[in-house]
C-alpha cells in the first residue's frame, strides 16, 4: 500500500454541455495515479442530478435496450439490469467515447508492465472495429436497478476475447435519500497474500473507473499481476440505479 495519503475524488468545476468537454476538465494525471495506486479512481460530479434522473427514467422504456437480465436467474445476485441497444442515448455514447482514450493510456501502460503484448488504439471507434471483426457486435453499456435486499456478486465483465481492462460505473441515485446500503466494492486477489477490499463511497452523479480483471502492482522485484472483481453490497432500503460503461462490445 502506498505510504502517501489517498487523494480526494477529482471533480471538475461543474458538468459541461457535452460529454467530451466535461471529461477533459478532470485532472487525468491525478486520476491515472489513483488507478495505479488503488485500482480505482473517482470522478466526482460527472453527471448533474437532473441528468441522473433522466437516465434512470429510461429504465422502463424498452425501446432503448436490447436485453433484460434478472440476476437471481443466473446466480449473479439479486436485482436486474438492461443492456442498452445501439444507437446509445447521446450522453451515454459521448461519455463512452470521451473516457476511452483517457483510460487507454493507463491500460497500455499496465499491459507493458505485465508483459502483455496487446496495445489498445487511441480512438474508441478503432477499438470497436476490432471487437466487431472478432464477432463482438453487441453493445455493453447497461443500466442497473436494485431494490431492498438486492446485491451484485463479485464478478468480472469480460464478454469475449477482446476485453478492455478498465470500466466506469456512474451512480444515478442519492445515497441516504433514495437508498441505503448498496456500496460499490472492489476486491484484489494478491499472489500468496490475503485479498484486499476497497469500498468506494459515491455520491449521486459520481463515477468510478476501476480495473476489470488484472492490473500490475509494484513489488520489491518488479511488477506483478493481481486479479480483481467488483460488486455491490446489499441494498438495505430504497432503490439504487447505476450506469455501467463497458468499452468492449460482446458476442
TrEMBL record:
Region of interest (Disordered), residue spans: 1-20
Originating species: Labrys okinawensis
InterPro entries: DUF2086, Oxoglu/Fe-dep_dioxygenase_dom
Keywords of this entry: Iron, Metal-binding, Oxidoreductase
TM region(s), chain numbering: none
Biased composition (Pro residues): 1-15
Pfam families in the cross-refs: Oxygenase-NA (PF09859)
GO molecular function: metal ion binding; oxidoreductase activity
Domain Fe2OG dioxygenase: residue ranges: 137-250
Presence of keyword Metal-binding: yes
Domain of life: Bacteria
Similarity annotation: Belongs to the iron/ascorbate-dependent oxidoreductase family.
The protein's name: Proline hydroxylase
Keyword Hydrolase applies: no
